[in-house]
Amino acid sequence: MIKIRKLLILLWAVTSLQAQSPMKPIYLDNSQPVEKRVEDALSRMTLEEKVAMCHAQSKFSSHGVPRLGIPEIWMSDGPHGVREEIEWDSWGAAKWTNDSCTAFPALTCLAATFNPDLAHAYGVAIGEEARYRRKDILLGPGVNIYRTPLNGRNFEYMGEDPYLAARLSVPYIKGVQQSGVAACVKHFALNNQEMWRGHINVELSDRALYEIYLPAFKAAVEEGGVWSIMGSYNKFRGQHCCHNDLLLNKILKGEWNFDGVVVTDWGGAHNTQEAALNGLDIEMGSYTNGLSSMSVFTYEDYYLAKPFLKLLKSGEVPVSVLDDKVRRILRMTFRTSMMGERPYGSFVNETHSLAARRVAEEGIVLLKNDKQFLPVQAGKYKKIAVIGENATRSMTEGGGSSTLKVKYEVSPLEGLQQVYGAANVVYSKGYSTGPSVYGRVIAPKENQQKLFDEAVKTAREAEIVFFVGGLNKNHEQDCEAGDRTSYNLPFGQDDLIREILKVNKNLVVVLVSGNAVAMPWLKEVPAVMQAWYLGSESGNALAGVISGTVNPSGKLPFTFGQKLTDYGAHAFDKLSYPGDSINQYYKEDILVGYRWFDTKKVKPLFPFGYGLSYTTFEYGKISADKKVYAATDVVKVSFTLKNTGTMDGAEAVQIYASQPKASVIRPAKELKAFKKIFLKAGETQTVNLDIKVSDLAYFNDKTHQWTVEPGDFVLSNAASAGDVKSAVKIQVMP
Ligand code: BGC
Description:
By secondary structure, this protein is an alpha/beta fold. It has 18 helices and 27 strands. Strands 1-2-3-4-6-9 form a 6-stranded mixed sheet. Strand 26 (711-720) and strand 27 (723-732) form a beta hairpin. Helix 2 (34-43) crosses helix 12 and helix 15 runs parallel beside helix 16. The radius of gyration is 27 Å and the shape is globular. The structure holds beta-D-glucopyranose. The site of beta-D-glucopyranose has 10 residues, from loops.
């Protein structure tokens, strides 16, 4: 009886407490529209609290509003795995034991899949990992355009074609954000080289800007609905990109109506007035870009901290400018950490490994395969030599900010041993390089001549040789903060390949890199494969393709030139690349990548969109649904595709457009559609693709309009930019 009385009293106390408690504030009520929550939260904040939100409080976090229960914002690299935890205020590892991630293939590999569905699976998986690790922003994807094969960060991007990069970044972003984690597309914009990246001023035409360098960012904003974007280190038309009025205020927030947050690159802010007025929202990493040492400068001294508060208090900058920034930050918070039903995420599981493996398998590009040298079935050889440092070196480490601490990584050697039997495989390094560092080259300790000689001996005694080389994410070898210094393979690999060829012609060259390289030995090597940085599942994917359990279907997302000067960026003087250390002019203008090679009739080593399969495909003739179109129409093209070989396989078919007679220069051809088609051996499919007539426009810098010039256009179906199968002419009416 006493117990029941006590219970009743407790019940009464709880209900009366609830009745007395004030109504939930609107900003905490996730049934309310986001904009209402934003306004409510903003109205409760002090000036100081608002300013605090606009800058970092640690290396990878920015302030919330503790008094109101609005969480801090936690960020992480990106773009192909969730980076390990680092210390609060240094780049040193925090040495946690719960932060070893799944490494996904670097984005060049994702681009090479030509498969938007896989890009979505990739985004979902990495988004879940970021969510589990309690991140609010994942610093990726990177969509800067591949302008020169020397750029140290090309491996983090999606190649030379704006259409391809756009089509793959949109599903990646959507996939990430479905976990309540903001993607942060980077680096906006024109960060196309690492040389002098902190200050080089890029000059180029509006046309090149809009046609080549902006479309992937625009698609990320308008189609991907990306919640944040990172400014780039360099300058554009005299202003740093992290506070560039034209890029951020006029284009991003004006023309594209971006309603998310602009974050600086780490150390990308340089001036309070510009940072305040030119569209920057959150300042990160000031006074250290990861390379310079710490200074006495504190987070309160950031450009958007105390100095900003001072300008606001004196009235030099209106509070409305601050409110706009805070609205954006709050909006992102209500989309992520305060979204309500936020998924929990997951970390390192079979689904993520599978996504990583599928991207790796579909991204590997078979470049050469004389007389069906590959695949090499298990059991065929008993004496197999694997040569090259990249067969064993961890490729998830290095490269700069995208370096990863991984749960596991299957090396190419382990993958090959698994398939061919460890007893049948002999490994020889051939050359060695120092550890992964950015900003420095560390000399290796081993005797290089000895390694070289041993490798040649191993090759001589083997029935077949797999040479696994390439670049290695070390300084100046596909790494942030430095460009490559040569187009050739480093560390004497060209010589080693030549020597191996003298003693064993059964050679497969596997290139692990995020960039094109010269191949002076190409004619004599029967099989060559471009294997990118493949992440945790590296060895499994590679061995699968080499042994034929996987039929390769990757296609190159950028052109492999014969030599460096074949590229548009390198066809001019130093002012075009790398600039004179102050300014740089993109002299090739809109003719980037295959647009240059095709228009100028320069024969590449391997064209954009190229990649072989173990089966063969026959393309039918392309046809269009009509002959004449209005500017608002959609052209429906179709053709048949037949798998004429004996193995199931996939082909990334491509549609290019050209306008033979135009009043302005137009590239010889431009990618306008693609699709990855999976076909069983012998199967035929009709491929249907849509191209909007408006997508045939060029950017008219005089009128600042996308303009479709009436007249004849040619649409062709192709297996690569260098392999057009057939064409159809259409007419666009005024
Ligand atoms: C890189 C960014 C990266 C940031 C944080 C910078 O050095 O340019 O891409 O997200 O560091 O690590």
